[in-house]
Write a structure and sequence with these properties.
The chain is α/β, with parallel strands linked by helices. 42% of the residues lie in helices and 19% in strands. Strands 1, 2, 3, 4, 5, 6, 7, 8 and 9 form a 9-stranded mixed sheet that branches. Pfam families: Peptidase_A25 (PF03418). InterPro entries: Pept_HybD-like_dom_sf, Peptidase_A25. Belongs to the peptidase A25 family.
Amino acid sequence: MFQVRTDLAVEARELYKENKRQEIPGVEVEKSQVEDAIEITRVKIIDEKGSQLMGRPKGSYITIEARGLKSADADLKDSVSKVMAKELVRLLPKKKGLSTFVVGLGNWDVTPDALGPEVVSKILVTRHLFKMYKKTEDPTMSSVSAITPGVMGTTGIETSDIIQGIIQKSKPDLVIAIDALASRKMERVSTTIQISTTGISPGSGVGNLRKQLNEETLGVPVIAIGVPTVVDAATMTNDTISMVIKALKSHSKKGSDFFNILDDMKDNEKYALIKEVLEPYGANVIVTTKEIDKIIIDISQIIANGINIALHPGIDLKDVNRYIN
């Protein structure tokens, strides 16, 4: 249904509201504010109609937005990590001796796509210790294993096949998959974390979709964590045109017919027009911010801290910060 490219459920909902001027049937939405800098939007698709209209599987999609993340100080990063940990705990299977397999999707040689591998490098892995001491559960820690499977272009193997093989041998109770995503708005790039219970498609952020990683394909529940690190040129151009129109209208009582026509167009209509103009020239490229190197390091630390706190009850933010540093 939606022509504008986005991996965020909250944006799919926004697009529907812009077009239909109403909430999506079969979808529940809840918003909350944490402190002044962090907003949480919980979108739950509860039936097939909502799934069809949203273009996404049934399940929960939690969006954590903090506009200051691009230049976050230590306090904001710690706050987002705590918020993320609380949201993850609510989604974890209620099982003693929980065993979790963390998968960092993406290409470690391409910075905007390296979020998954960077997160995994900071995960507190413990499965080998449980095996060594022949333990099945511990009050302070849980069994955690992790891998960065790479991409098919460098391994020659479907990512889902690698993960399925490991799951068959290690038999985890849960998979947490981390990947880079795409957004429809520049303001959400690197400032938004999406957590979902519906799995993920490796390569979705750069438009190179592979086989789905979800409970149906892997045989265990999958929690997907993603951060939009890129937009395409059509999205950026659309945002720019919208800002130009807004600025022009604020300086004149009555705009030209041309600007009024553009202003009346819906976002998905403008996006489709811009994409149609750019594609013959091969100009609809994927773009990211110039500070992406630092942003990936910062956000990977936030996500890893959130996962570590959620999976290991006996450690806190002070402990995990010491571990990854």
